[in-house]
Amino acid sequence: MKRNVDIKEISDGKIYDAGDMAKLDVGDCKGCHACCTGMGDSITLDPYDAYRLEKGLGKSFEQLLAENLELRVADGIILPCLKMGENDACSFLNAEGRCSIHPHRPGICRLFPLGRIYENETHRYFLQVNECKKERQSKIKIKKWIDTPEFSKYEAYIDKWHFFIKGIGDRAPEMPEEQLKAVNMGLLKVFYLTDYDTASDFYEQFEKRLSALT
Hints:
By secondary structure, the chain is of the alpha+beta class. The chain has one domain. Helix content is 38%, strand content 15%. The strands form three sheets. The protein has a two-stranded antiparallel sheet. Strand 4 (114-119) and strand 5 (122-127) form a beta hairpin. The two termini are 21 Å apart. 19% of the residues are buried.
């Protein structure tokens, strides 16, 4: 999702790489789940998020869509996002106000309160200083904070997915309505509705699907 903001107004003024340390640790967020409420439809899932939830919860994408996800339109593109439940809280929050899918949580949740800046077919990070309600207690390496296996593969995948989707979003305003609808249905079918083999490498499956559309 595009954001038209001045990064100087929302960050600490620094740009980080994955190996850099940033003041992120908040003591396991004990007693707080403010970032899990009032999000609307902003927590969009990329294909790896869907794969991770399917594998971790043992559910199909259709089951997730019927229970905890919904479809949203952003920049002309239809993508799945987390569904909000009672009191405008994430539907995956448990009765204690804790994340019930923490090991399988989406990439945006793992990233928070960091953001990404995309340039020259890659990305770097910035720290959003006004988003988290907890006081940052200590520094932690960004790579460790995001907590994703095979991190270099994940980083490369994030870039490919971002610029692929951005390319479609940039062309969306010029597309006839029926063409854009067909493109969106194709994206959902290829990257979400067609089951992944959760016993096999995700990135190889993603590359094959991406190659079929590019």
